[in-house]
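Async update (no meeting this week)

Hi team, since we skipped the sync, here's where things stand on the single-chain job. The sequence we agreed to prioritize is pasted below, unchanged from the tracker. I ran it this morning and attached the output directly underneath so nobody has to dig for it. Comments welcome in thread, and please keep replies under the output.
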Amino acid sequence: MARADGGGRGGLGGRPPEQRGRAVVFATDYGEAGALVHYGARYGLPASYSGHMSFYDWGPPPDSATGPVVLVRPEPYPAVERAFTGCRQVAEVDNGHRLANEEQHAPVLLCTGTVAPWSRLWPRLRHFY
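Output:
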């Protein structure tokens, strides 16, 4: 998943440096967000965030992180997707082990930004199961 987000032609790897400095990875699931926190740095990914369960308590990205936003979501999540603009699928999750789980083949979307500053969006992005 981290390789798909960081290095793909349509992902963050192809963005100009000034955009990468404002980039965020947002996962709708705390497990994905945790994996991205753990493995993302080796692929040059920005900090990862999630509004899922207690991962929300780590807080929002800074308001200066205006995008692009990489959005990872295993299934359509309209309440979350409405927070982002200009989204298009650029990859899908592949765990590399042919392990069938809810994250395998999840779409990875690249969005141009957010509809409001993170500090205003954050309360709306909290979700549970």
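Quick observations from my side:
Helices lie at 2-7, 17-20, 30-39, 78-81, 118-125.
The CA atoms of residues 31 and 103 lie 9 Å apart.
Reply here if anything looks off.
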